Each structure stands twice: as structure tokens, then as C-alpha cells.
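Reviewers of the previous submission asked for a worked example of the structure-prediction workflow described in the proposal, so we include one complete record here. The input consisted solely of the amino acid sequence. No template or homolog information was supplied to the procedure at any stage.
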Amino acid sequence: MSFFRIIMPNYNNSKWLEKSVGSVLKQTFTDYHFIFVDDKSTDDSMEKFGEIVRESKTDAHISWTIAINKAWNGGARNLGIEYGIWPEKESEYTLFLDSDDWFYDENVLQNLHDFIVNEDYPDCVRLPFGIEYDGDKFAKVMLDDDNAEKLVKSLFVASWSKCVKSELVPLFPENTLMEDVVQHIKQCDMIAYPVAVFNKLVVVYNKNNSNSCSSPQNQKAQNAKWQSSMYRHMADLLELQLSHDYCEKQRQIRAKRCLENIKNDKFIQ
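From that input alone, the workflow returned the following C-alpha cells.
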């Protein structure tokens, strides 16, 4: 069993793989298993990934798989989660990293490991991140949600903004966008131990990638997918069996917002 499992979904991000994959393979802490999932890329992502792995000469803890059918981010991450439950690929904690983002420096895993051990192995660790945008501009985002109730209310729900015990990582909804919102709420309901707050940057969120599904131009280009996400988002939240009162309150708030977004055609341009 490894200490960390790092799951990276990829679709046509060959341009960024040297930074993203490279940031994993250059880590000074090596007790991790890296699972790369390609979601039917049409560029040279797999060739680029192979080159990076060969040049790193550290393939002992690397696995990769290719989706049989287009899975989108949720489905691709699920493939990584399911792949990681094989006995030889089990891990104590799970991290997600998108293929156009990267770890802040080569000591991220070592620092995070030491913090987790010192904090007596919390269920979840909140991860500060940096944002790179408009070329070379950089901003820091420090997150201080120190319990599940605060976490479920947070606007920062990206899967890479948390490090979570592997047995507490639920599957993502598939064939939709906004999959991380639904998974985030499900996950918050599973966390019992107080959330530990890490004080060092972990991920660099790359907002310079114009091909990202979250970029403004692609939100317009995928109007039907965004509208579908609203319905799926609302349906999944309504079906959740949540055990905490604060989760139920947030479910009602978010479901109401989804209904309003659909009614007002917010994502239809």
C-alpha cells in the first residue's frame, strides 16, 4: 500500500503534460501511486505521456489506462478510483490533479505527508492553491475550512483542493459537467474527523488553458452540456441521503439555485 494515490484525468492536454505529469514524477517523496487516465484524447497526449515517463526513469509506481468510451472528467476520475482499489494499488490518501495543472513544487508530497502524520491522520486535509492567469500573473488562495460543515458551504469544491482518506472518496456523477460539486457534497457527508487545514500551496490552478471545459468560450460552446449539468446536478442533490442537518440545508439551497438557473436559462447564450 502506498501513502498517496494521485489520479489525473486527461483529455487533449498534451501541451501541459510536461508540467503536470512532470510535477508528480519530480516529487522528493516517492511513496505514491500515480494513475493517469486518458479520456479518448485526439491529440498526442499518450505519446507525450510515454515520453515523459521514459525520460523520468521512475515508472515503478505509475499506471495508466484509456477510457473505452468518452467519460468526461467524472467518468475518467472514476476509472482512476476503481483502478486504485486493486490490492497492489491501494493507498491511504487520494489526491486529484488535472492534466493542465501541476504541483506547486517538488516537496509538496513530503510536506503534506509530514503534516498528515503530525495531525494524527485526519479524514480530510484542505489544500491551499495558486492561480496562474493572464500569462504570468499569480495569485494565492488560502483555504481555512476546518470542519465538514464549513467545507460543504465552500465555493471552492474542486477535487484537487482536498486530500482525503481513500476509503472516503465517493464516485463522481458521469457524463456531465459540474461533477465535482455533487461529489464534494457527498464526500462532506462522509467526513467525521475535523478537517485539517494545510498552510502551504499544493496545486497551481492553470487558468491560461483556453481549451479547459471551464473556460468562458467553452462554456458557450458546450451550452447543451451545461444545461444537462444543471438538471443532473439538481437530480443528484435531491437523491442524496444526507445524515447531517447542515448538508440538508445546503442541498435545499443548491437545488433551488439549480431550478432558478434552468428557469432563467443562465447557461444558454
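The chain has one domain: 2-263. We consider this example representative of the routine output the project will generate in years two and three.
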